[in-house]
Specification:
This protein is α/β, with parallel strands linked by helices and about 350 residues long. It is built from eleven helices and 15 strands. α8 packs parallel to α9. It is globular and about 60 Å long. The structure holds oxa(dethia)-CoA.
């Protein structure tokens, strides 16, 4: 029997209600920058920011439900996930993973559920794992969610190097078995890491290397620190190479690419990668201007945005590319899905888990 292809059959998203334009971000946090600089150097005009009560799990649950609604609308009957992968760098707790509680809140009792941490490349990592599970016949309907709350969990609001870039949100997709020629079919991928450059973007303290209370640590060590210039150069180099490897495995040239949906970190990075690949700007789709960098949520949110605005025809030859802390990167080819994306507002957890 031939191996099934993994087909993207549901698309959901969730964004916090609060929209913060550059001018307000700069003013509220006394940042030594200005609105126009941020827009010109990053392409970001505003971002959605979670209130302190809204967690990554809240956003993930809402996006996951929206993806299932979207899949039900396309299939004509409900599809039930049999495994949940949550890509996040900002889990609700340092222990345990957030995915089991998200599964519980979605009514998916007893399904396997795990977090995947590959920072901004996390969604592509989780997608690749989920694809492998479907093609191997181990699971049929993986739900893959990318969800983050960088602005409340990781970013120092007074650090202009990071505060200007990040936003919060969640995107989710459901997979099902199908054939490689269908809209939504996942085709080929490339993933990679470079752990020798971990120090370029990381949270220095709070893990086992430098636990809470370690001598010499300051408040700043518990926030994300980034060498923006070096990360930028690595992002361009790694996404480009990864995209070329994925295209090669698909037997597509850059000319074949009808839609390029990149991780949304900086418009100049996206333009530079597209230029090196030879993909025209009109084929690049993103929502960076309005949502900023939402890390592991960025690619599914950008996909949902392109589908919502009917910018890409179902079946179009599509390239995804991502890069982030680790360093970790990846690229993926697929036929653009026909699922109509749906969105839901986040709700707070109505329980705190059972006490021991
Ligand atoms: O999600 C994956 C991880 N993150 C990324 O992919 C982010 C990658 N990096 C970036 O997006 C960019 O490097 C930044 C947006 C962080 C910085 O932009 P840049 O154009 O690379 O700035 P730069 O570091 O090359 O600095 C250029 C100038 C410097 O001034 P001088 O030395 O030329 O006088 C900086 O001090 O811009 C200055 N600068 C700023 N000025 C106003 C740096 N950041 C700012 C700022 N506002 N926020």
């Amino acid at each position: 029997m031939p191996m099934p292809a993994a087909v993207l059959c549901g698309l959901g998203s969730s964004l916090p209600k609060r929209v913060v334009p550059n001018s307000r971000l700069v003013e509220e946090n006394g940042l030594a920058t200005d609105s126009e600089w941020i827009l010109r150097r990053t392409g970001i005009a505003a971002r959605h920011m979670a209130d302190p009560r809204t967690s990554t799990g809240d956003l993930a649950t809402a996006a996951g439900r929206a993806a299932l609604d979207s899949a039900r609308n396309l299939a004509g009957s409900p599809l039930v996930p049999d495994i949940l992968l949550l890509a996040t760098t900002t889990p609700d707790h340092r222990c345990p993973a957030t995915a089991p509680e998200v599964a519980h809140r979605m009514g998916l009792e007893a399904v396997p559920a795990l977090d995947v941490n590959a920072a901004c490349a996390g969604f592509l990592y989780a997608l690749t794992l989920a694809k492998g599970l479907v093609t191997a016949g181990l699971y049929t309907h993986p739900l893959v969610i990318g969800a983050e709350t960088y602005t409340t969990a990781l970013v120092d609001p007074h650090d202009r190097d990071t505060a200007i870039l990040f936003g919060d949100g969640a995107g989710a997709i459901l997979l099902r078995p199908g054939t490689a020629s269908q809209p939504g079919a996942l085709l080929a991928e490339d993933l990679g890491t470079d752990g020798s450059r971990t120090g370029l973007v990381r949270v220095p303290a709070g893990g086992s290397r430098t636990p809470f209370g370690s001598p010499g640590t300051t408040r700043k060590d518990f926030y994300l620190v980034m060498n923006g210039k070096a990360v930028y150069a690595q992002a361009v180099r790694r996404i480009t190479a990864s995209a070329l490897a994925a295209l090669d495995r698909t037997r597509w040239s850059a000319d074949d690419v009808e839609a390029f949906v990149s991780h949304q970190a900086n418009q100049r990075i996206i333009d530079d990668v597209a230029g090196r690949l030879g993909v025209p700007a009109a084929r690049c789709h993103g929502n960076l201007r309005h949502v900023g960098n939402t890390a592991a949520a960025s690619i599914p949110l950008a996909l949902a945005d392109a589908a919502e605005r009917n910018l890409v025809r179902p079946g179009a030859r599509t390239l995804l590319g991502g890069f982030g802390a680790g360093l970790a990167w990846g690229a993926h080819t697929l036929h653009f899905p026909e699922a109509r994306p749906l969105t839901r507002s986040p709700h707070h957890a109505d329980h705190q888990g059972a006490a021991p």
